[in-house]
Design brief:
Helices cover about 35% and strands about 20% of the residues. The protein contains 13 helices and 15 strands. The strands form 3 sheets. Strands 1, 2, 3, 4, 5, 6, 13, 14 and 15 form a 9-stranded mixed beta sheet that branches. It has a 4-stranded antiparallel beta sheet with strand order 9-11-7-12, covered by helices on one side. A two-stranded antiparallel sheet has the order 8-10. Bound molecules: (2S)-amino(hydroxy)ethanoic acid (HGY) and manganese (II) ion (MN) (2 copies). One manganese (II) ion binds next to loops. The site of one manganese (II) ion has 4 residues, from loops.
Amino acid sequence: MIPVLSDKAQMNSSRVDTRILMSRLTRLGEVGRDERGVLARLACSDADRQGRDLLLKWARESGFETRCDAIGNLFIVYNPSGSDESPILIGSHIDSVINAGMYDGCYGVLAGLGVLETIKAEGVAINRPLALVAFTNEEGVRFTPSLFGARVFTGVLSLEAAYATADRDGVTVGEELLRIGYVGTDSFPTPAAYVELHIEQGPVLEADKRDIGVVTGVNGAFSIRVSFDGVANHAGTTPMRLRRDAGQGAARFMRFVDELARAHTPELVATVGTFSLEPGAINVIPSRAVMTVDCRSSKSELLRMAREAMAAELAAISEETALGTHMAVLGTSEPVDFAPDLIDCVEETAVDLGYSHLRLPSGAGHDAQMMAAVCPATMIFVPSLGGISHNPLEHSSEEELAKGAAVLLGVVEELVTR
Ligand code: HGY
Ligand code: MN
Ligand code: MN
């Protein structure tokens, strides 16, 4: 039986112009591709600047006020009556990971722009300002931690610490934001509510054949950088018993991390995403190994246990191998529950539109988890093909994206007319 969209669904999903949404997604998705077509629009890079310029161009063409705060968070504001009520804020991010897909973050921002344009074009009476935000450096790939602009906006990260944060070449956020021309002087008030539309980046909605994810919260996480220091030596002449091989210590730790997560699956996940050896020569015993670990769970106590277990394993490796070891915490975030009445509003809107839906937590981190500390917040998910994300194969269909935008429009209309 071919599912028939309810009249309201048909009407709503066409109210946000999906054609424009898809063309903007495609256009923005081209910004930051290299000659091989690999997409990396890393925070505060030239590609990020181009993406920002494009977003602001579209916003200004639609007649919206645009603002930029001191950490480069971009705000697109619709406040026809000049109300000084606290605003409803929707948004996400437009920076990407390396070898990225084109939907992560950008979908929420560009669908949000479409919602503002629809509200404006239809002359929907709104009782409070409506705004869209594109947060700086959500991904935290070039500059850690992730959720960077949202941490500064919510006061979790000071502006000076943020400016001083350096990438692996020692270039700082402050220098780069200045260079790309996005150190702003504008401010934006704490919103009355924050709603973020995002691709699920996981397999649940597709597996359950649901249109909409009614997101209940976000898993907690911590990220660490771990280093091992040994002695470089000749690969041919050094007996195994005399070696202080940083690479072998790192390999043991990497195995431990994976086994720890598997022992507590599915509540705990852990990823060694970067790994380097020095001096990195085929015939030299590595003197130094550095890796990062990204560990997540919906349970704070599991995160605490995991961090303590990793620290204990590091001490044991140091003891048994005479390697120097060090662990630096790069970022932490507690598990977050979203606002029950906003979660209900998302669910009721999906029901209203005749869309199938499912309540689920987010395994991925999002700016909404920072916003939840300062205002009621929630998220809306649409399915990800094969659950794939942070990968050029990341994909959601135009119909799926249109449904998400329709739900965002419905939730926003409810919130701005309260
Ligand atoms: O890593 C994350 O969970 C998000 O995509 N920044
Ligand atoms: Mn994202
Ligand atoms: Mn991401």
